[in-house]
Each structure stands twice: as C-alpha cells, then as structure tokens.
Design brief:
The complex is a heterodimer of chains A (about 300) and B (about 150). With about 300 residues, chain A is an alpha/beta fold. Chain A is built from ten helices and nine strands. In chain A, helix 1 crosses helix 10, helix 2 packs across helix 10 and helix 5 crosses helix 10. In chain B, a hairpin with a 3-residue loop joins strand 2 and strand 3. Classes of the chains: A alpha/beta (about 300), B mainly beta (about 150). The interface between A and B is medium-sized, with 18 and 16 residues.
Chain lengths: ~300, ~150
C-alpha cells in the first residue's frame, strides 16, 4: 500500500489541510515552477471529466512534469475486461504518480492498497473528490482570511451532492455553523446531520431559500438541482426555480459573503449575479489549479517552500 | 419434558470441542453457513428449534474435536449478537463467553452498493464495525453504511 496517496479528504489532519492551503497560496503567487521536472504523471480517467482532468494536467504541466493517460476508458483495455488492478499495475511501471477518476465507488481506495506509486483520487462515483474539497477550502480561506467560525449555507441538492458532504466533513476541524437549504427530496442525509451532532456543529435546516438566511451567511455554497434525481417530475418542476440565487437576493448580505459553486451551473445562479463582486465561482475553479499543485507536491513529498 | 431431555443430551455428549449455544432459530442456518460447517471433517451436531429457558426456541451447533478460532467465531455476531460459545475439554466447559464483533470484517459481508468496486473486481471485501451494539458496518471502499437488517453475506 502507498501511504502517500490521497483518496479522501478525511485522510488529512487539520495541520495537513492548513499546510496544503499555505502551499496552494505559494503556488498562486508563482504557479510556474520546475518541481516535477523529469517526472511522469498518469491521468487515468475511466470516466470522462474534462474539467477535472484539464485542471490536473495544467497543474502538472505548470510544474514541468509530463502527462500520460487517457480520458475515456472505452479506448483502453478495461473495455476488453481488464481489471482495475491490472491497469494500475501496468501504468505504475511508467508513471511516478497516478491521478485517477472512476465511476465505481472505492476504486481509488482499492488502487492505493496495491499501487507502488501514489494515487490521487480525482473522483470515485458518488463517493469522494478530495481535490474539489481542497479547492473549496482554499477558496473559503482566501476570501475569508480564515476557516474558523464561519457560517456556511449550502443550497440545492444536499442529498446526492458529494461536494457538500466532503466540505461538511472537512470543515469540522474549524467550528463552522451550517445552514442547509433544500427541498424535502434533496435534504441533507441523516448520517451527515448525525456527524454534526456528534461533533457539536450547529446546523439549521430550511426549505425556503430566503434573504434572512443569506444575510447571516459568510459562504453561500450553491449546487445544481438535477432533474434525474427526482422520481416525481412534477416535484422537480415545482422546486427547480425555488433554489435559484438572484442578484437582488444579495442586497442585504454581509460584505465578506462569497458565492461558491462547484460548476457547471445551469439555472441555480442567475447570470445577473456574475457581475456582483461577491460571485466567486470562476475564481474558485481557478483555485483548483493551485490546490491541485499543492496536492501533487504533497503526495510526491516535494517541498515547495 | 422430552425436548429438555433432548437438549441436555445434545449438549452433554461432547468430549472435546466447541459448542455454539443460544442461536436464535432464524439465524441458525446463517451461522452454519458463516462457519463453513459443510466443509468440516469432524462430526457436527446441529440442533434446531430446541426449547430454551432464555429465548423460547433456539438453535445449537456442536463441533467435536475442533476449537474454532476466535476470529471465526466472532463472525457469528454479524447475524446473532448474543450467541454463547462453550469450549469443552474432557466433558467440562473450560471457557464460556459471548461472541463479539471484531473492529474489521474481511471478506464475509457483501457490499450492498452495486457501484462499489468490491462488486466489480475480483477482490476481498472489508468493512469497519462502526456500531458494535446495533451491528452497523461501513464499507472500507465505497464508505456505504449498512445496518444489521441489510447485511448480506458473500
């Protein structure tokens, strides 16, 4: 097993998270460095995800490393029935690090158990996507100057949204206060509410996306309400516009409030919000580059001081 | 009267070996399955629907001349948490204890999540016991939590 791998954000301690944030901010100040010179990084995307793959590959390229890999498993021997085990063993002959995305949950954890080179999980089904969580944490840290004692309002699909679950778990080190805004069908699952109770994290649940909630918020984390999540299509039609953020709703919000969204957005943030300085989702995506540079260097044991 | 006699007989007849007692009848054959009794060479007595003062009806399994490994016995706690283990040497009970779930369970339970890697690769399953009392497990790989009533054996 390779203990340097990153499979889940909960693999990191508070100190490790904080040092990654520092590292990400050094990469933001100076993103082009030859720290990966002579290294080959494999990006194995058994499931397509252009956004994540480009972000990781940019991170490697800006650090002077080289990239091999595939962006669609249909072109590889896994379509011929090769096991994940064999694919990883084969690729580990060629690469110093494997960044993988897989539609099956637990795939990265399994790969990390036998791979001779470190694994970075770039998403395993609905389970974990730790680099997304790191970029969310970095975005929060950068815009608020701290991760401590913040009020975070999560809106939209809180039931299936992997990003909100991972963010919730990662924030527990930092005494957050949560507002969960969702319709009945997409409420925060009980296990995450239990997690909050167990760790003395204050949370409130709302069905209404109201200015009253927005006005106490430091971070407004929007997510997409997806049609395919609904068994009752009438219910979807009823709620789809109830969780849309409009610029007018931000009038009474705190100065430090920032709007985050893992992207892609559909209609949950009106376009009139884009020009509001509190809209932060595009910068958030760019922060992914620095967060991923920091993660890559950490798992390879490279110091970027 | 006769059933009590039968029960006494069933327990008393062992010279050396392991007696697994107080198995709820509905779990008896699951326990048989869990322990892989069908592959054992030694003589095994299985009692089903015996009267019990403690739990109404019960099941019992006696394995002659075999002292089953603690890890193996603790698997039973997955389907029947209050089962009693009696270790018999020379007709005497030398150890008596209740089974208890280990912290980790390897390759016994099947993950209920069809999208879990363990259901799609030739590999062993691994679960963490997150609540021993209520028998709640968490898949080491996909992190899905499974409660007692939904535990499926491989």
């Amino acid at each position: 097993m390779n203990s340097d791998s990153l499979v889940s954000i909960s693999d990191f301690s508070k100190d490790e998270i904080l040092s990654l944030l520092e590292s990400a901010s050094r990469f933001e100040a100076d993103p082009n460095r030859d720290l990966l010179k002579g290294k080959v990084v494999a990006t194995l995307f058994f499931e397509p995800s252009t956004r994540t793959r480009l972000s990781f590959e940019t991170a490697v390229n800006r650090l002077g490393g080289r990239v091999i890999g595939f962006s669609d498993a249909n072109t590889t021997s896994s379509s011929k029935g090769e096991t994940l085990h064999d694919t990883i063993m084969m690729v580990s002959n060629y690469a110093d690090l494997i960044i993988m995305r897989h539609h099956l949950e637990g795939a990265a954890r399994y790969a990390s158990e036998f791979s001779p080179v470190p694994i970075i999980n770039a998403g395993d089904g609905a389970n974990q996507h730790p680099s997304q969580t790191m970029l969310d944490l970095y975005s929060i840290y950068k815009t608020q100057g701290t991760l401590d004692n913040l009020t975070i309002t999560m809106v939209g699909d809180l039931k299936y949204g992997r990003t909100v679950h991972s963010l919730l778990m990662a924030m527990y080190y930092f005494k957050p206060r949560f507002n969960f805004v969702a319709c009945d069908e997409l409420k925060m699952p009980i296990e995450y509410k239990e997690f909050c109770k167990k760790h003395d994290i204050e949370y409130h649940e709302y069905a209404d996306f109201s200015e009253e909630v927005i006005n106490q918020t430091d971070i407004l984390y929007m997510t997409r309400v997806q049609r395919e999540r609904f068994t009752d299509i009438m219910e979807y039609e009823r709620v789809k516009n109830l969780y849309t953020l409009k610029n007018s709703m931000l009038l009474g919000s705190k100065d430090n409030l920032r709007v985050l969204h893992p992207l892609p957005r559909v209609n949950e943030i009106s376009y009139d919000v884009d020009s509001n300085p509190k809209a932060y989702y595009f910068q958030q995506a760019r922060n992914g580059l620095y967060a991923r540079q920091a993660i890559i260097c950490k798992v390879l044991g490279i110091d970027n001081n | 009267m006769t059933t009590i006699k039968n029960e006494e007989l069933a327990v008393a007849a062992l010279q050396n070996g392991t007696v697994i007692d107080h198995i709820p009848t509905e779990s008896l054959f699951k326990v048989v399955n869990l322990l892989g009794i069908e592959n054992m060479k030694s003589s095994v007595t299985i009692g089903f629907n015996l009267n019990s003062k403690k739990c109404g009806k019960k099941g019992i399994i006696k394995v002659a001349d075999v002292f089953l490994h603690e890890d193996t016995l603790n698997r039973i706690a997955l389907v029947a948490p209050n089962v009693k283990i009696n270790i018999i040497r020379d007709y005497k009970v030398v150890d008596k204890h209740t089974v208890s779930l280990p912290d980790d369970i390897y390759d016994i339970v099947k993950c209920n999540n069809p999208k879990c890697i363990t259901n799609n690769e030739p590999m062993k399953t691994h679960f963490h016991v997150i609540d021993r009392e209520n028998v709640v497990l968490k898949c080491h790989y996909c992190e899905r939590v499974v409660g007692k009533d939904d535990i499926a054996l491989k």
